[in-house]
Amino acid sequence: MEINTSNETYFGIDLGTTNTVVSKGNVLFNGLIQSQIIQIMQVDENKCPTTEFILPSVLYVDENGKEYVGKIAKNIKSQASKKVLYNTKRYIGSNKTWSLGNSEYTAKEVAKQILKTCRDSMKRYNQGKEVENVTITVPASFNTDQIKDTKDAALEVGFKIVNLIPEPTSALIDFINEQSNLIESQRQVDLSKPTRILVFDLGGGTCDIAIVDVTQEGRKVEFTEVAIGRYDELGGIDFDNKVALVKLNEFLDLYNLDYYSLNKEDRERMVRHLRIFAEKAKERISSDLEMNCYFGESFDHYVMNFYGEDPVQFCINKEEYDECIEEFFIKSRDSNKRSDEENKKNIVDPILNTLRDYNISKESIDYLFLTGGMTKYQVVKDKIRNILDLKENQVINSTDPLSSVAKGAAIYDYYETIINRVERYTGENEYNEEVSVTEEKKFELTRVLAEAIMIDVKEGLPVIIINSNQEVPYEGKLKGALKTTSPSGVEINLYAGIDQYDSKMRIQRKYKAYFKTPKKPGTPIDIDFSIDKDKYLRLSVDVNGEKIELKQEVDLKEKDAM
Ligand SMILES: Nc1ncnc2c1ncn2[C@@H]1O[C@H](COP(=O)(O)OP(=O)(O)OP(=O)(O)O)[C@@H](O)[C@H]1O
Ligand SMILES: [Mg+2]
Known about the structure:
Number of strands: 31
Structural class: alpha+beta
CATH architecture of the largest domain: 2-Layer Sandwich
Largest sheet: 7 strands, mixed
InterPro entries: ATPase_NBD, HSP70_peptide-bd_sf, Hsp_70_fam
Helix content: 25-40%
Bound molecules: adenosine-5'-triphosphate, magnesium ion
CATH topology of the largest domain: Nucleotidyltransferase, domain 5
Family: Belongs to the heat shock protein 70 family.
Shape: globular
Number of domains: 3
CATH superfamily of the largest domain: ATPase, nucleotide binding domain
Strand content: 25-35%
Radius of gyration: 25 Å
GO molecular function, one term: ATP binding
Keywords: ATP-binding, Chaperone, Nucleotide-binding
Protein name: Molecular chaperone DnaK
């Protein structure tokens, strides 16, 4: 049986904290898959339609309540306006809401607006038909609540089949796909023997790490995630915040002002302006360095409506910038002895902790693969290479750090669609000899959970239901660890962490199940759980033979507004 895929298009979305990028994959005449990013329709600052390869992950609601995602919203954000929502991906998986216009938005709602904008554009590349299958990327370290919200958001905007894959792995798939399309002498990595690659993805909001073993056998490439970094909210936003803070303090000192004597509105506006200044400065210095046209000059910028009537000038040069961000490259000390100063976020801890938690030596890393907008900054690249004691020829820069994650997703979507179709033709997992599966099934991905999933049993330590480092999909039953306390229902708190003793254990949302018939307090409860390959978790309880699915209820991790 031959499966004809030549006319089909496969789609991927990198739903980033700062930028969203969409890709399409097509099969070339020689059977290889080629992935490209596509233009996304949006409107510009004058409300005129425009198409761009990048969709800023920013939502703006105008005075008539009309919602816009993308360029216009980013432009309004650049005026330090409060009429936009951005960086909301950091809050996905929680019930935190913001008011904008006359509506309330959760991070999931914002994600839906972004995905809807993407889906409208994808149609143009799909012969005018609505796209139903898509692969969306998520940070490797997303917990099951964050996964659930992302997948549900995609289903709710009309996608029918949604695959989720880790962002770092996706970028690596794109790179390996490009490599395998090249002749051997042009390849950057030798895939003739098993190769271990540490993928470091530093974007706008997340520092994401995946250590992946890549093995090639003929046309088949296997990706095995051997370690995943824990969720780390560190990205370009934090670098911008730090520089903004330094500049604000300089300004206050110069004018002899006290921060807290300013009114809240003024303070917030000043910080918003300075964050934008910091982001622009970073991107300018970095681009000038990249093009060898940085001559030590400072980046100067006049900020209107900052303080008083006159515009205020801010400047920064590379040396000053590097000094401001130095703290992000300093490892924190032993957690027991940490002072506040040492507890700051940095890029060293996530790397060293991932190696330690999974018992992986630095020496076993063959290559470092860098992706994400922040790795365009040379200092960041050098620091990571030094942390891992790697030589220059062991560092691979993604061809385009802003689009590689998205491109990998369309490639994955192709293989996933093909595998599913082959399985449908041949019966579940029973490959029929006549089907050319090995030819088609070129990429295989094995995934692990970054953190264990635990439940609170009221007395004593939480009980692990799924171990960290567990390969997914996975399912099981936890018998009798919980007992009913109320006749009407049960409430379960989920935690994510390395194990029960983890000091950084995070509480996820609360789950509740209501019994159909009252239960005697003290009745043992069995918990059935299943986690699919996308890390989508389903829980149900079994009390005296009555099976009830658990639903998420109350948010337990409210955070301050951005
Ligand atoms: N030339 C550059 N030099 C330095 N930083 C840059 C450059 N271009 C973009 N950035 C920064 O990269 C970040 C955005 O990167 P990217 O698009 O990879 O993030 P994202 O995918 O939206 O976020 P995440 O992966 O964290 O969800 C922003 O902080 C942006 O300022
Ligand atoms: Mg990203």
